[in-house]
Amino acid sequence: MSNIPFTTLDWAAVEKTVHQGESGTAFWQTVQFPGLRIRIVEYKDLYLADHWCQKGHIVHCLEGSFVTEQQNGEKITLKKGMTYVVSDDLSSHRSSAREDVKLLIIDGDFLRNSDL
């Protein structure tokens, strides 16, 4: 990851892209730096991710609540103000939401699992 100069993000000016889930829709606003991705993600319409993810993330719930399901069957509910953190390849997880949700998601090279 390279050094990032002092930068402000005006999320109102960042384009939303549409990502269909197994059910429902996710809208992403993405800012990409070398080795670092920052997103505002919204889940709508009874969202269920269409894949299991092994990527590391820092996920902070800004609005609503959602469930992160582990492939082993464990389910964790995150509500507004809660965060989860996981490194790459240490979890197989997917998200679902019964209500509209807004998340701040940060991922990048700093979450690589150094034990691999």
Automatic annotation (TrEMBL):
This is DHCW motif cupin fold protein. SUPFAM superfamilies: RmlC-like cupins. It comes from Mucilaginibacter ginsenosidivorax. InterPro entries: DHCW_cupin, RmlC-like_jellyroll, RmlC_Cupin_sf. Gene3D superfamilies: Jelly Rolls (2.60.120.10).
